[in-house]
Structure formats: structure tokens, C-alpha cells
Design goal:
The protein has about 150 residues and is an alpha/beta fold. It contains 5 helices and 5 strands, in the order H-H-E-H-E-H-E-H-E-E. Strands 2-1-3-5-4 form a 5-stranded mixed beta sheet, sandwiched between helices. The longest helix is centred in the first third of the chain and has 32 residues. The N and C termini lie far apart (about 85 Å).
Length: about 150
């Protein structure tokens, strides 16, 4: 009986690992059966908006914390609001972007744009990755008009 109890205790971690692996596999299979390409849909939506407003997209600077990822997908230039050593206000003064693509840093960037004399208008928003990042915030594209 003691042998039986010790073997059962030894199996419990294996059973837990196996259960977690099955759970993760189930989620992968469910997603693969019905994929939701939310990032790609959002990126191409951004491209369509810019194309419709500007007539071309390759000369546009997209400014935001996920702008660089979208730029790779649609072929625009980008400036990341988070990465780099220059402050957000210096980047705004240098680039004077016409479009912001914001997710987790929305409030901070919009306030900085307004403090530099920009007027912001929301053009569209998307649910990306189930709004997992940024406490459920949507990704938003905004246009900026500068004084």
C-alpha cells in the first residue's frame, strides 16, 4: 500500500503537466480551425485609410507605439513613441506626424501632441489580439492637424 501511495504522488505532477499541455493544444487547434488575423486586418485597414486620405502611403510617417510593426506590413515610414533616447516631445517637434497609431500609450501621446499645438481626430479603432494588451484598449488611428 505504501508503494501505491508514493507512486500516485509521483504521478500527480505528470498528470498536471499533461493536462496543461492538452489545454494549450486545444486552444491552438481551436484558433487554427478559425483564425482571427486581427493584427493583419488592422494594419491593412490603416493602409486603406491613409491611401484614401493621402492618395499614397509610402511618404506618410506613422507615429505610435506599434507603428513600426504596422509599417513593416503596409510600407509606410514610422516613428516609435516608446523606443529610442529622444523624448516624445522632441520626436513630435522633429516629425510633426499626420497620423498616430496608438494602443497602450494613447493618453500620454495625445496630451503631448496637444501640448505641441496639434489637434487630434480619431479615424478608426480595432480590436487587436482580443484587446489583451493595455487593459482592453483598442488600437486607434488618429489624424493630427498642426497649428
Amino acid at each position: 500500500m505504501q508503494w501505491f501511495n508514493s507512486n500516485i504522488l509521483a504521478l500527480i505532477p505528470l498528470i498536471l503537466v499533461f493536462g496543461l499541455a492538452l489545454s494549450g493544444t486545444g486552444k491552438i487547434v481551436a484558433y487554427s480551425a478559425n483564425p482571427i488575423f486581427s493584427f493583419s486586418q488592422m494594419a491593412h485597414g490603416v493602409g486603406r485609410i491613409i491611401q484614401a486620405r493621402e492618395g499614397k502611403i509610402h511618404d506618410v510617417v506613422l507615429f505610435g507605439n506599434i507603428a513600426d510593426s504596422v509599417a513593416l506590413e503596409i510600407g509606410v515610414r514610422s516613428v516609435n513613441t516608446v523606443l529610442g533616447i529622444r523624448s516624445l516631445n522632441l520626436k513630435l517637434k522633429e516629425y510633426r506626424p499626420k497620423y498616430l497609431l496608438l494602443h497602450t500609450d494613447y493618453k500620454k501621446v495625445v496630451e503631448a501632441v496637444r501640448s505641441e499645438g496639434g489637434h487630434v481626430t480619431r479615424l478608426a479603432s480595432w480590436d487587436v489580439y482580443g484587446n489583451y494588451y493595455g487593459n482592453g484598449q483598442k488600437v486607434q488611428i488618429l489624424s493630427v492637424r498642426w497649428n
